[in-house]
Amino acid sequence: MTDSNLDRPAAQKPFRRLLLTGAAGNLGKQLRGALAAWADVVRVTDIAPLGDVAAHEEASIVDLADEAAVHALLEGVDAVVHLGGISVEAPFEDLLDANIRGLYNLYSAAQKQGVKRIVYASSNHAVGFHPTTSVVDIDAPLRPDSLYGVTKCFGESLSRYYFDRFGLETVCLRIGSSFEQPKNPRMLVTYLSFRDFIELVRCSLFTNRVGHAIVYGVSDNRTKWVDNTRAAFLGFHPQDSSIEFEHLFPVTAPTAELDDPTQHFQGGPFVLAGPMEPKR
Amino acid sequence: MTDSNLDRPAAQKPFRRLLLTGAAGNLGKQLRGALAAWADVVRVTDIAPLGDVAAHEEASIVDLADEAAVHALLEGVDAVVHLGGISVEAPFEDLLDANIRGLYNLYSAAQKQGVKRIVYASSNHAVGFHPTTSVVDIDAPLRPDSLYGVTKCFGESLSRYYFDRFGLETVCLRIGSSFEQPKNPRMLVTYLSFRDFIELVRCSLFTNRVGHAIVYGVSDNRTKWVDNTRAAFLGFHPQDSSIEFEHLFPVTAPTAELDDPTQHFQGGPFVLAGPMEPKR
Amino acid sequence: MTDSNLDRPAAQKPFRRLLLTGAAGNLGKQLRGALAAWADVVRVTDIAPLGDVAAHEEASIVDLADEAAVHALLEGVDAVVHLGGISVEAPFEDLLDANIRGLYNLYSAAQKQGVKRIVYASSNHAVGFHPTTSVVDIDAPLRPDSLYGVTKCFGESLSRYYFDRFGLETVCLRIGSSFEQPKNPRMLVTYLSFRDFIELVRCSLFTNRVGHAIVYGVSDNRTKWVDNTRAAFLGFHPQDSSIEFEHLFPVTAPTAELDDPTQHFQGGPFVLAGPMEPKR
Amino acid sequence: MTDSNLDRPAAQKPFRRLLLTGAAGNLGKQLRGALAAWADVVRVTDIAPLGDVAAHEEASIVDLADEAAVHALLEGVDAVVHLGGISVEAPFEDLLDANIRGLYNLYSAAQKQGVKRIVYASSNHAVGFHPTTSVVDIDAPLRPDSLYGVTKCFGESLSRYYFDRFGLETVCLRIGSSFEQPKNPRMLVTYLSFRDFIELVRCSLFTNRVGHAIVYGVSDNRTKWVDNTRAAFLGFHPQDSSIEFEHLFPVTAPTAELDDPTQHFQGGPFVLAGPMEPKR
Amino acid sequence: MTDSNLDRPAAQKPFRRLLLTGAAGNLGKQLRGALAAWADVVRVTDIAPLGDVAAHEEASIVDLADEAAVHALLEGVDAVVHLGGISVEAPFEDLLDANIRGLYNLYSAAQKQGVKRIVYASSNHAVGFHPTTSVVDIDAPLRPDSLYGVTKCFGESLSRYYFDRFGLETVCLRIGSSFEQPKNPRMLVTYLSFRDFIELVRCSLFTNRVGHAIVYGVSDNRTKWVDNTRAAFLGFHPQDSSIEFEHLFPVTAPTAELDDPTQHFQGGPFVLAGPMEPKR
Amino acid sequence: MTDSNLDRPAAQKPFRRLLLTGAAGNLGKQLRGALAAWADVVRVTDIAPLGDVAAHEEASIVDLADEAAVHALLEGVDAVVHLGGISVEAPFEDLLDANIRGLYNLYSAAQKQGVKRIVYASSNHAVGFHPTTSVVDIDAPLRPDSLYGVTKCFGESLSRYYFDRFGLETVCLRIGSSFEQPKNPRMLVTYLSFRDFIELVRCSLFTNRVGHAIVYGVSDNRTKWVDNTRAAFLGFHPQDSSIEFEHLFPVTAPTAELDDPTQHFQGGPFVLAGPMEPKR
């Protein structure tokens, strides 16, 4: 970014160039269109095919573990929405490449290229071993529920370092369950509508200063396991709620399986998912 | 409970058998009807007459201080809503029988009968000696405002023990003032509508895991002395408010009686009510 | 106040006599009319002209630094809304007279005259050196952003002393930006509508007991830097929001001026405003 | 106490009359002699024989469940050290008489007789279900590990009420394991030497103001599960340590019984001791 | 300070020039000699006579309310130990000149002259309305017990502002009772030996970074009302204790005067000392 | 571990087999001898030569990044002291192999082999971006000061996961500066004597239950940046202090370099050390 925003004509959009990683994924597809309104150029990337490329878009297939490619990817970028990497439990070597090495490459390149801010898809699985009988705020101790969750903790620590060391800002989104609709009773609690997800990214990109922030990505559901009070400086107000989906899951008495750990911890099935054996 | 919920036909209700104590009391009458939707069988009990008994109900007059009767009462019960006992200041020996011995009998029997959960009518009088110029959350130190309040603290401790020791779950409802409408200005703050009370019990019965929980039972009144943020995992959202009753109490300047303790503490008149002399 | 409120006919208003200082100022003008409904007599004062005086009003021009005049001013007053003094950064000697000596005179006189409560216009500038990436509650450490802010901290300490020593109650209103509408993007966060300001004063005057309270005066804006949870006993619920004014400020990317302290701290431009040289 | 301390000759001891309950018990025997230095008259009581009665002593056998006897016992008493009642797990009815009804009788009588302060033998078993991998301070939530522990919670609540209601001060001593020497490895952590116990009572009696205080009674042992920082106003500094007894217990690797709850919780064997069946 | 410390010969002392205000006062006299070891030049000032002036000293009589004189006083100074001003309750106008206007002059001049650090004699009277049954840490809310205490709160706020605004560091010493020996039982708790006082100043001057720090100045007395845990970065370890003076005050039972506020609050007699009438 | 400790003759040592990684390093050399007293067999490993192997030792050169070798290394091991890996800032790929992949291999193997506990050499650099004007306790938020520090955060998260998921206990030692003596003024604060280091490991191995614990490894130095109060259940009491080394560093005024970040943050020079370029 060699010339300042101020030199550009007023008709231009707020950001000159935004980078979206993981653009071919579940949430990437949702967000991709919204970014058009916020940036003159939207650079989209994934390791999977990216489909049609719009006039305002730059598309490239990049493996985040490829250091040189990532450095090229970050050139000329104002800010990043980083949805790339693996978002479920996986063998450690896969997570190492995608979520650890890949993330380091992203931050290293971003710092060198003068990127100002990264919106980072962390996860509620960074704190999934907190019990379902508690409410965690943004200062709660890390309690990853899976190796995947451990890599999200890594991302939060790495981004904290880049902020404290270089002033590179990050908002860590501890995203719950963002799908068309909740798939099971637990997701009534962790549901984040696509619309609320996009609003959360918008707040994260446009709030004047964010420092190194952590915020839970959940809609205004009836039951809450998280508390965003201390992230209120981001101005995120979910508009949706899982209440409209409650009818999908018949009312039942508390399950008889009192010892089932997937019921005891906020992470749900993730707490039993790992570690996974490598695929050979 | 010898067979599991899963063995029952889908047409059955969530609970097989719920026990409601204090069913003839002010709140018991409100709740009794609602339970019909939640359980195949509703067992109702009180020391006072129980009125007409519906087809889905089992009714019995039981003194909670009668250990053997209480053990019989808990047989075959899935969960309990315990509204029984004394709910105002009273001579200590009366409180001892109803709220201490009676409660021990209830928990002892429930544990032996394999009951899974008890919804326990605690009271805001367990913390009534907190000043009206403070807001207490669910972790606030106990400050009972009466011997009655002390017995509610006992109940919270006893139920905590049964959870830590045996896994028997309890939700302690620190109920405010649940009447048709507020009877004085203080109740504008502590008012809990009957509808919100029933919803609070519903949340307490159907939340998948509750552990040993504490929650304040107040409607969405304008002035708040309590903060349920950390009980948000119960999903309780009051629908009513005392705002509609504010017109009943004319606006006045703060009372001239600056030393009146009933104005200084959340417990109101309870702080001066006890200890009471025994009735002889 | 030699006779009690109870001796007065029911037709009278809640307060017999309220004193409003700073009545000719920005907020004083807004509030002056509202007080008519709350008190039989409204005594208004300022160092600037007070305009037309209504039938229920007593008006006088008083310099708060004039000890004798202030003592006369407080005679027969039930409660005070103190908006007087300087509300922006100014040379220290000016602040000393208006906000320190003047405030002492007010409290000294109020205590001697038996005034029961003072609603004190403190300011968010008492905590303006907290970063914009944080949310401060009412217990947050003082971080004044200007000499003006330091004098507001003085006012909070002085009023605390008068409460602990004499029981004279105060509500410290940490008022944000109360204008017709926000004048810049920062004020979208700190905006307090006139209507909400008046409601905040109403709550502060009519809540039965307030002790020594602190509360933030902001409307229900989208972005929040403050948290009034522990002041909920005051019953303040803002009805307005700056959302309706967001269109006034075009959406932009975060400013390029990453080192600009007016963007980093809640106090905004105040953090660079002082200390000011005396006017000579 | 009809005449003031100031009326007495200087040669007299600090207290005119102290009452020691449980005087025939393990700790009562230790303390009884020390009290001679602190009070002109030491009234000792127990349900067990009290042995030789010294010239400065008044001895009486009293069942604390006997209301009239307890009221007589408290006449003319300045302060009480209450070690009476049951100090181990026991059938509920026994605990009810000794630790609940008995304690109520004591406080009811003390309040009526104008007693100024009670030093109450609470117990670490009021918080014994906190894990051994934590350190609890005096504000930690109650976690009784036994019905006995529940009765100690009752005592802390009851005494809080009498302080808030009547100003009757209490120091709750959460006594660990006070024996000649630790009897097992756990007691290396909970050990309170007799000398330190007596010093703790001395601090509790002579500190000018105590309000309603809670303090852990442990010596300066190497491993600590408790933190008295916020009770430092009592001036208690243990002089002894269990270090001298560590040689009694051979160094071992952590036990293989990883699921043994008596190793997981501070209460040790108490967590499995109850509830006990009544003796019939 | 135009040349850096590094340019000076190694034989010189750590500081080139230290300023000591209040040098003729109780504590100033104690400290004055010690400063000789720490600075090439010690500038001493007071409004009272300063006695003999040593070779390494510069002495001047300055009224802190005299702005021009204070600016001259700060020229060429590396760091300040500010003991000047009034250290007891006094009429407000006197406090205003000495502790408010005087302190502003000091900070204003220090900032302009490039002073790096001020060690500021605050007082435990800034928090003296905390009860004697509590322990306050350095983050405890301000609770001044006198107008004098209010001016100390002012000093803590003003110095915080100068640190946040200009990076001028301050250590606020909340000094207890620093005399040859305790003069009453309360001072057994608040006693600070002269030796410990000097050590506290030494730590405050030589710790590499202090930012804006608060620390309680008390010796290692038996009873503690304050907790310096979070000020441990200053490295202050008192060597003395009031234990050696306990024999001066005979052991007594808690005073009968249960309503005496000087016994209830840490500030002792200060809580009743003010406000004082002006001397005329 | 197929047979229990209880089956072994009393003459045997507490542990049957301990594994020490990093045995050829600075701290490994110190600890290696001490382990002889605690285990029948001490298995030592490093990537560097291990010198003479004692009769009770098993030695092997293993690269922790070699999964199969690590699994073999953990066979038959009761507990591990893990000092291996890189302990300074290094290029990311080196840290990735040694501190991330290597650590995962260690935990994965330990879990499969039934190891009960790991003592993990974390570092104060996991929190090195906390300012030197603060005191951090064991719950302080992670603030890594280097990529090295980020990998230590990873280790704390990974070990937390293995405890929550499998019950494998870990004590994370946030070791300061453990050398023969402090090498610079900062190390006067962070110094951990070799003797205290060994004692810290001893406590970590022999405390009956540790769960997932964090503790700072510093001696009893004069200045403290860390607070182990909540780790007191480990029983660690340092015997040494850097006070004896203070004479090595001449007393100086605070450095003139007020903007030097290595002076502002606890991590010292680490805060500027990274990220390092890879060695090629």
TrEMBL record, chains A, B, C, D, E, F:
It is an enzyme of class 1 (oxidoreductase). One of its GO terms (molecular function) is uronate dehydrogenase activity. Transmembrane segments: none annotated. The keyword NAD applies. Pfam families: Epimerase. Residues 19-176 form the NAD-dependent epimerase/dehydratase domain. Its EC number is 1.1.1.203. Keywords: NAD, Oxidoreductase. Belongs to the NAD(P)-dependent epimerase/dehydratase family. PANTHER family: 4-EPIMERASE, PUTATIVE (AFU_ORTHOLOGUE AFUA_7G00360)-RELATED (PTHR43103:SF5), NUCLEOSIDE-DIPHOSPHATE-SUGAR EPIMERASE (PTHR43103). This is Uronate dehydrogenase. The gene is udh_1.
